[in-house]
Amino acid sequence: MSPSPPAEPLEPTDQDLDVLLKNLGNLVTPMALRVAATLRLVDHLLAGTGTVTGLAARTGTHPQALARLVRHLTAVGVLEGGERDRPLRPTRLGLLLADGHPAQQRAWLDLNGAVSRADLAFTGLLDVVRTGRPAYSGRYGRLFWEDLSADRDLADSFDALMSCDEDLAYKAPADAYDWSAVRHVLDVGGGSGGLLEAIALRAPHVRGTLVELAGPAGQARARFADAGLADRLTVSEGDFRDPLPVTADLVLLSFVLLNWSDEDAPVILRRCVQALEPGGRVLVLDRADVEGDGADRFFSTLLDLRMLTFMGGRVRTRDEVVALAASAGLVLDSERTSGSATLPFDFSILEFTAAPEGDAHALPAQE
Description:
Layout: H1 14-24, H2 28-39, H3 41-46, H4 52-59, H5 63-75, E1 79-80, E2 89-90, H6 105-109, H7 114-119, H8 125-131, H9 136-140, H10 144-150, H11 152-162, H12 166-175, E3 184-188, H13 194-202, E4 207-212, H14 214-226, E5 233-237, E6 248-254, H15 264-274, E7 276-287, H16 295-311, H17 318-327, E8 330-337, E9 347-354
Parallel strand pairs: 3-4, 3-6, 4-5, 6-7
Antiparallel strand pairs: 1-2, 7-9, 8-9
């Protein structure tokens, strides 16, 4: 039987047009929110500054220009008041932009922070889609990770966002795996060391080595020293597309592969295989692409486009990660997902071993 023709799309309604104009098609509101977050307008209002004139004085901005920004923020329901002697104040929605709110939206939107600053590269999305190449370095002159390594303030803002809930970001993944048979963890691209620290605290017998660029490597050293773990956890600076500095019985890739293209990711995995001791394992902690509809799917596609635009990476499905690992000579041994362990959200842990000799893809010799 021939497939049935696709159904004709429904004629858009006025409500659809309203959604397109207000929520999907304008760049004004997203940038207005980012400016409000960067200027900490909600924090100033909560501290008692109730007028545009007062806000302008507190933020060092042009009073008339700020007034026009505030008008739009009231129109979209972030602020209210400001007319007929009513004090200006945040709405319930606007309170999400308070610096102390647990959702940390002000920090995510702050244009001085790593992520919101990187989001400005989306003005080059057309070229990204045409070429498949990321836009970040074209805007800022350096690759995303090089930029963070060179700028401590950017790196600190990024680390703060990534670790805003350490129970979910580090402790939950550390709790989801049995470390009792592990002697040495090689954490490849482990950032400022939050996950390796959590592992070491749960498994006092484990030694660890973290490989990172200079900026996060320095932060990891300080973190391990502060936690009293410097005798067990060491840090090595380097590019993990190059040969890794030590071997280990467990090589960890935590939220690393999604940052890299299909060309670079197998190189990293091959380096991990080269660093495995006999019988060792490669552990891949990552986010999985989410099928279907709803909020999970929205955030999965949002992250995927950020990876593409920032650094040329991608959010992969479980099967795509398994295939990528197979191309580097790894076979899947076990897996844990958010539905079967303590893992939050769409996190997954895939455990790989080296393919039997003769089955593995040819690997370059250790240099």
